[in-house]
């Protein structure tokens, strides 16, 4: 927990001008990752349930997975797949044997979230860096210190 508290203290010290520039950049980045995840999940489409349940959680929102939930920081955004079978599609399954001797066979992994993040990460990094730079310039222009 020490590292979480230290991170929270560092995030609290960020100038409001930087936060104001970062939140839209984080939201747009999460939407971009979600769009790519939806496109990648298209390959495993059967009912469309998985694609329809890829969601963006805005900064400060609540992420829910099953019975668990977590509050995002005001400088965190998330992309979640809330379909109950999303983890099975992402990671695949091994063969399962039934008591009667039958088998369901294995389902190969058809990842969609991790590849979406990896494809989007360079653009996300650039977008966030631009937002931070713009926030620093705005803070410096408002007497917020040297830039």
From TrEMBL:
Pfam families attached to this UniProt entry: HK97-gp10_like
Start and end residues of each stretch annotated as Disordered: 88-108
Protein name: HK97 gp10 family phage protein
């Amino acid at each position: 927990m020490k590292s979480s508290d230290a991170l929270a203290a560092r995030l609290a010290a960020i100038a409001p001008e930087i936060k104001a520039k970062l939140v839209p950049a984080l939201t747009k980045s999460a939407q971009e990752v979600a769009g790519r995840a939806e496109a990648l999940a298209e390959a495993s489409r059967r009912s469309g349930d998985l694609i329809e349940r890829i969601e963006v959680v805005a900064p400060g929102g609540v992420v829910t997975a099953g019975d668990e939930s977590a509050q995002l920081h005001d400088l965190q955004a998330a992309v979640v797949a809330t379909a109950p079978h999303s983890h099975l599609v992402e990671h695949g399954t091994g063969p399962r044997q039934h008591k009667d001797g039958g088998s369901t066979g294995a389902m190969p992994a058809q990842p969609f979230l991790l590849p979406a993040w990896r494809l989007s990460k360079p653009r996300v990094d650039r977008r966030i860096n631009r937002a931070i730079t713009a926030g620093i310039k705005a803070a410096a222009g408002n007497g917020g210190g040297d830039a």
